[in-house]
Amino acid sequence: MKCANRPNNIFKFSHATAFATLVTLFASLLSACSLPDDVVEKRTAIQYEIDSIDAYHRLAASTFELTTPSANAGSPEQNINDEPGYQVRTPSEINEQVLALLSAATFEQKNFVPDTYASLTIDSEALAGAFNRQVSDKHYFNHDLVSIEVDTLEYSDGSTRSFNKPFSAGKQGYYALELALPNAKSLTAISTKITYPAIVQESVLLTPSTTDAIVNTHAIKLLSLGSHRVELQMPQSLLDTVMVVEAEDLAGLRMRTLGMTSESIPTGLQLEALANQRRFYRRVIDKIDAREFATEAEIDRYLKKNIPNNAVPMAVSKDAQQVLVSYLFPRPAQSLNLVIEILLAPQETNIALKRADSFYFPQNDGFQLATDYDTELDGLIDNDGNWIGSPQYQDLRQHNRYFYSHATHTYDRQYLHLDRQQKRLTPVNYSIDAQPSIKNDTLISIDQESNRQGIVKASSGREILPLQYPHIMRIGAYFSAAVDTRNGRKYLLVNPNGQPHSDTLYQRIEENNGRIHVFTSSLDDREKLIDLGPAL
C-alpha cells in the first residue's frame, strides 16, 4: 500500500517545489529589471540623441531635396568630394572657370546724355555653377561670394588705363557692372580680375565679437567649431529656449536655423554620418537593455572607445548638468557669425530677451534688450541679468549705440544713450539721423522740436557741434553744415572733431575722388574751386 501511494506523494512534493522555484525566479527577474539610476539616466540621454537625429532628418526631408549618399559613404577615406552635386574645387579650378565666364561676359556700349557708359553683364547662374551654388528657392547664392573687379581699360588707339572698380550686384540672376567712362566709344576691351574666399575643409574659428555678449550673459559656451558643425554648451534649463536664428559665413552664404536643428542644406555626408551615429546609439541602448552595463562609467568607456569618428558628441553631461547642442551646416567656412535668440520661460524668470535689430549685435558690450513679462515694458539687462535702471519703455529698439522707443515717426521717438561705464540709460533731447562714421565715431543729431542739427560722439553721447544748423551732411570724415545768411544759404566745413575748419562760408562743399572740393564765388559770380585735400 505504501509503495502504491509513493508516486502520488512524489508528485505533490515536486509540484510544490517547482512552484516555489518559479516564484523565486520571477522575483529575481523583477530585481534584474531594475537598472541603476545612473544607467537609466544615461539611457535616457542616448535616446534623446536618437530623437534629435530623427527630428533633424524629418526637418531635412520636409524642407530640402536630399541628395543620395555615395556608395562609399562612411568609409575612412571618404571626403566631401564623393557627394553627388557637391564638389569642392581647388582655387585654381575655380579661377579657371570664373575667368572663362569673364571672358564670355557681355560687353556693350551705351550712350546716355550727357555721359557715355560701358556695361558688362555676367550670368549669375553660370557663376554660381563654378562654385556649386544653385540659384533656386531651395538653394542659396550670394553675389558677395566672389569679388570681380575691372582691372584695365583698352582703347582703339592702343592706350590702356587702370580702373579698379568692383562689380555691383544687380538683380538676382546676373552680375552687372555699368561704368561712366571717358572716351567709352573708343573702348575696345575690358580686363577683369577676381578674388574669392579660400574654400577649406578644416576647423575654423568663430568671430568672437558676434556672440560674446549673448554667450557670456547666459552661460552658453561655444565649445568647438568644426568644418560643418558648431556646438554650444549650455545649462539643461536653457535647452528648449535657445535658438540659433541665423548664421552667415565669410563667403556670404546665409542660413536660417530652426530650434536645435539646421534649416540649411544637408549634404549626403552629413546625413550618412547621422545615420551611422543613430545606429551606434541604438546598439548601445540594446546593450543596456540586455544588462551588459552595470554602471554609467562602463557605458561612458564603451562610448568613448566605439563612437564613430564623425559622430556628434553626447548631448547631455550628467556631472555638469550641461547640454551640448550641435548645428550642422552644408559646407566648410572660414568663419561663422551666429545670431542666437534665447527665450526664457516665465516660470524661470520674468525677463524675455528681445532680438536686436542689427544682425551682428554691434558694440552691445554684454548688454541686451529685454522685456519684463509682468509690465510688458522694455529695458536693458547686463551680463548678470540685472536691469539697467528699470524697464519703462514701449518697444525699445537699438540704433547703433543708442536705443529708442519705437514710434511711427522719427520725431516721436524717445532716444536714450547707453553709458556703459555707469550702466545707465540717459534720455537725450535729439534723435539720430545717420549711421556713425567708422573713422571718427560721430553721429548727426537732430533736435526734435526745432529740427536743428548737430554732431555727437556715438560712444559717449557728448555733443561736439551744437544743435543749431538747419542741415548737416557728411563729406568723407568731415561735415558740411548749412548756415542761413542774408545772401542765402552758405556752408561751413567742419572737421571730424566738430570744429570749423575755418570761418569761411562756402557756396558748395563736395567730395570728389576722395578729396574735398569747396567752391567760392568771385565778384562776377563765377565759382572758384579750391582743393582742400583728402576727405578722410
Give a written overview of the molecule.
The protein has 536 residues and is of the alpha+beta class. It has three domains: 49-76 and 201-342, no CATH class; 91-195, Immunoglobulin-like (Sandwich), CATH 2.60.40; 429-536, no CATH class. The strands form nine sheets. It has a five-stranded mixed β-sheet. Strand 26 (442-447) and strand 27 form a beta hairpin. Helix 2 (37-63) packs antiparallel against helix 6. The N terminus is likely disordered. Residues 1-32 form the signal peptide. This is Lipoprotein. Keywords: Signal.
Keywords:
536 residues, disordered N terminus, 3 domains, alpha+beta, signal, 5-stranded mixed β-sheet, Lipoprotein
Helix count, DSSP H or I runs of 4 or more residues: 7
Straight-line distance between termini: 126 Å
Could you give the order of strands across the largest sheet?
Answer: 8-16-11-12-13
Report mean pLDDT, rounded to a whole number: 60
How would you briefly describe this protein structure?
Keywords: Signal. Helices cover 22% and strands 37% of the residues. It is α+β, with helices and mostly antiparallel strands and 536 residues long.
